[in-house]
Amino acid sequence: MRQQHGEVQVRPGVEADLPALTDLYNHFIRETSLTFDLEPFTPEQRRPWLLSHPQDGPHRLLVAQEATERTKNPHNGPPPAPSIAAAAPGGAGRPDGALLGYATSSAFRPKAAYGPSVEVTVYCAPDAGGRGIGTLLYRALFEALAGEDVHRAYAGITQPNEASRRLHARFGFRHIGTFTEVGRKFGRYWDVAWYQKDLG
Distance from CA of residue 25 to its chain's centroid? Predict the structure, then answer.
C-alpha cells in the first residue's frame, strides 16, 4: 500500500525507517509532553515496537516521506531509508526523502477481549507543520483498517493540544472523558483527554 500525494508519499514503515522513526520520536520525548516516555530510545530499543506493526492486520505503521524522483516511480523497488533531517530545521526536501511523520494503530490493551480495539497515534516532524501530513497519514491508516476486524479506535491526547483535537474531530473522533493529572513530566502533572472513533 503506497500512496502518492503530491510531494509526499505514504507507505508502510519498514526496517530501514527505524533510525529516522527513532530520531523523530526522541524529539517528542525530549521536547514535549505529547508522549509520557521520559528517556530517549536507541533504534535497537525501538525494534520490538517496529516489529509489532506488520504490513497487514489491525496493528499498522504508516510513514509519510518526502517524495523523490526515485520514490515516485513504483518500479524502482522499495524506497531507501529516509533521512532523519526532517526533525531538524531545513531537513525537508532533501533528495533522500526526509521522514515527515508517522501514524500507528496499536493494541489498545493486552487482554484478548480488547482485540477489536486499537489505540492510534500520529507524530509529525516539527518542520512539517501546515502541510496536512497528519491528515494524509490518518486517511491512509483508516483506509487500511477498513477491511480489518477493528470495532473502535482510541486516542489519548495530552492537554492542551488544540491541533490534535481538531485533527481527531475531523476524522470522527468524539471526546469520551479525561484522565486528570495522570502523568508527570517536566516537573508537573498532565491531563490526558480520550477520544473514540467507531469503526464497525
Answer: 9
The backbone torsions φ and ψ at residue 131, rounded to the nearest 5 degrees and listed phi first, read -105, 0
Query: To the nearest whole percent, how much of the chain has pLDDT over 90?
Result: 78
Q: Give the phi and the psi of residue 40 in degrees, each rounded to 5.
A: -60, 155
Of 138, 188, 190, 200, nearest in space to 163 by CA: 138
Q: What are 3-52's pLDDT values in tens digits?
A: 655 689 999 999 999 999 999 999 999 999 999 999 999 999 999 999 99
Q: How far apart are CA 117 and CA 101, in angstroms?
A: 23
Mean pLDDT over 122-133 rounds to: 92
Whether residue 118 contacts residue 153, with contact meaning beta carbons closer than 8 Å, is answered with yes
H or E element in which residue 167 lies: helix 162-170
Give the pTM: 0.85
- 85-88: Cβ within 8 A, 24+ apart: 86/20, 86/24, 86/125, 86/127, 86/128, 87/20, 87/23, 87/24, 87/27, 87/125, 87/126, 87/127, 88/127
Q: How does residue 59 score in pLDDT terms, banded at 50, 70 and 90?
A: very high
Integer Cα distance of 70 and 96 in angstroms: 9
Q: How many residues make up the chain in this entry? A: 200
